[in-house]
Design goal:
single chain, alpha/beta, Rossmann fold, 7-stranded parallel sheet
Length: 582
């Protein structure tokens, strides 16, 4: 019997040692735990709780789980924990059905191994430079992530040595079966060392996948995770198909007709976030950017501005998909498709929070339509098709928004009492001087609120030829009319067609900015109108070429205005305007 002591200590039955929690419960090294903390991982998901202990023991494993459940970390973390960093030959091979998933998995390994400088991961897939992949493999790697065909190519060429391989992971095995890769997968399995760990993850378990698990896995542990569809049920998910050259034009139309209180736009790269943000900012939106180059302190300020309503649109890479909790987000736009279903689920989960409903819209190019099924399986529900909003839809939304703003101003004035008194005095004085009715005065006030911009979109309803220039702005010029399949428009479609002389009252000017500078008609209209005081309608035809553009301006422009335009910068680049001789 243990006797209690006055001083407590080792024999005190009331004293227990604290138990590790979260990922520390698995016994991971400090370097792994620090990396997980840095990317916001605090508690393991159900599949991680079930799979990690089995994989740390070296057991084979069959996992049935949808994307979005955390399965990448479920196999990557125990693989990293069991690596020998001194051994510079491949110890882990991950096979994926697509190069996009291969890149995603490799990026995940790199983020988890951020504190392990000796550990190197390489992604090998078709369509990339074979020699560059050979160079990376020869430098020494412990983890190889690749598509079956390219992995086979390297094995046959002798540039991928798997003689020391410890573990093979088959990720999204049912997708590999659907895409016809199962014979390749079995060929790879037949070349591996006899003593190796095999891990198979699949969203479904068709008979062929079950046969492979029985034939090549040794008494595997089995883990099945059922996803909860409650959160996804609150999010309406839609997709639209648009050729790559017209995505920005379609985005502006979607924002006009669907945008509400708070919007997050997800893009694939940092460069795309900047391009999209610059375009939307030029069209009058309050925009912020969140990507890998944004320091942590600035990231926190940006999120606070989004929460407080100082920013309505956030353009972000997937760095913002985890740990971003803002209740006022009503719409998530996947401007670039996340080829990994897990990333898609995390992205759309930024809306529909705290029991509220939300909207998610996915942009697909014609070539990307084949990935839709995988994202629907990840989300656990169909994604509805939608059309790019028409002029009529956008105009109705503008009228509704104006009515709502007017109603809000009547019910909740933001002016101080003395300011309201001054405004009332101005209205009374103008009404007396002009002998006009209250209705006419109110109408004039509403027109004044438009600041000279048209209320409704007019003209061609084809967004691929005429661009809307943001809320309440009329489009000018023609956007490139490239064909689908995401290729560059033909030369004749990029403004380089014969153009007639300017109208009699107009003069043509040349500016040294073109397609390669990502310039758009709206950028030129906004910059010139702001600098000269011209109404947007007074600016004539605009044509954009690869390295320059032309713009027609009213004849007889004062020299001082012309000099001001010479010093103007658009998209942080000098305009360098000059007159074109007739």
């Amino acid at each position: 019997m243990i006797e209690p002591t006055n001083g407590g200590g080792l024999n005190d039955p009331t004293e227990t040692l604290p138990q590790p929690s979260g990922f520390a419960h698995f016994g991971f090294a400090t370097e792994l735990l620090d990396a997980l903390t840095a990317i916001g991982y605090t508690e393991p998901s159900p599949i991680q709780k079930a799979a990690i202990p089995e994989l740390l023991l070296g057991r084979d494993l069959v996992g049935q789980a949808q994307t979005g459940t955390g399965k990448t970390a479920a196999f990557a973390l125990p693989m990293l924990a069991r690596l020998d960093p001194e051994q510079r030959t491949p110890q882990v091979l991950v096979l994926t059905p697509t190069r996009e998933l291969a890149l995603q998995v490799a990026a995940s390994f790199n983020s988890y191994a951020a504190q392990l400088p000796q550990v190197r991961t390489v992604a090998i897939y078709g369509g990339a430079d074979f020699r560059d992949q050979i160079h990376q493999l020869r430098r020494g790697v412990q983890i190889v992530v690749g598509t079956p065909g390219r992995v086979m190519d390297h094995m046959r060429q002798g540039t991928l040595d798997l003689s020391s391989l410890r573990a093979l992971v088959l990720d999204e095995a049912d997708e590999m079966l659907r895409m016809g890769f199962i014979d390749d997968v079995e060929w790879v399995l037949g070349q591996l060392p006899e003593q190796r760990q095999v891990v198979l993850f699949s969203a479904t378990m068709p008979a062929e996948i079950r046969r492979i698990s029985q034939q090549y896995l040794n008494s595997p542990a089995e883990v099945t995770i059922r996803t909860k569809a409650a959160d996804a049920g609150r999010i309406r998910q839609r997709y639209l198909t648009v050729p790559a050259p017209h995505k920005l034009a379609a985005l502006e139309r979607v924002l006009e007709s669907e945008g509400g209180e708070g919007v997050i736009i997800f893009a694939r790269t940092k460069a795309i976030t900047l391009t999209v943000a610059e375009s939307l900012e030029a069209d009058g939106y309050d925009v912020a950017v969140l990507n890998g180059d944004v320091p942590q302190a600035q990231r926190e300020r940006t999120i606070e501005r989004l929460k407080s309503g100082q920013v309505d649109v956030l353009v972000a890479t997937d760095v913002a998909a985890r740990g971003l909790d803002v209740d006022r987000i009503g719409l998530v736009i996947n401007y670039d498709i996340p080829f990994d279903g897990e990333a898609y689920v995390h992205r759309i989960g930024r809306t529909g929070r705290a029991g509220r409903s939300g909207e998610a819209i996915l942009f697909l190019t014609p070539r990307e339509r084949r990935f839709l099924g995988g994202l629907e399986r990840a989300a656990g529900k169909p994604i509805e098709p939608m059309e790019v909003p028409s002029n009529a839809t956008i105009n109705q939304h503008r009228l509704d928004r104006l009515r709502q703003r007017l109603t809000a101003a009547l019910n909740e004035s933001s002016c101080r009492e003395e300011e309201r008194a001054l405004l009332s005095e101005i209205l009374q004085r103008v009404a007396q001087e002009q002998t006009c009715s209250p209705e006419r005065l109110a109408l004039a006030a509403l027109e004044l609120s438009l600041t000279g911009k048209p209320l409704l979109l007019q003209g061609n309803d084809d967004f691929t030829t005429v661009r809307p220039q943001g809320p309440g702005r009329e489009g000018h010029g023609r956007e490139s009319s490239g064909r689908d399949r995401g290729r560059e428009p033909r030369r004749a479609d990029r403004g380089e067609r014969p153009q007639g002389p300017p109208e009699d009252n107009m003069e043509r000017f040349r500016v040294e900015l073109g397609w390669r500078d990502r310039i758009k008609p709206g950028n030129l209209v906004g910059a010139i109108a702001n600098e000269t005081g011209l109404n947007g309608k007074s600016i004539g035809r605009i044509q954009i070429f690869d390295a320059h553009s032309t713009v027609d301006l009213p004849r007889g422009m004062p020299e001082e205005v012309f000099q001001t335009l010479r010093d103007l910068r658009v998209l942080s680049k000098p305009l360098q305007i000059s007159r074109l001789k007739s």
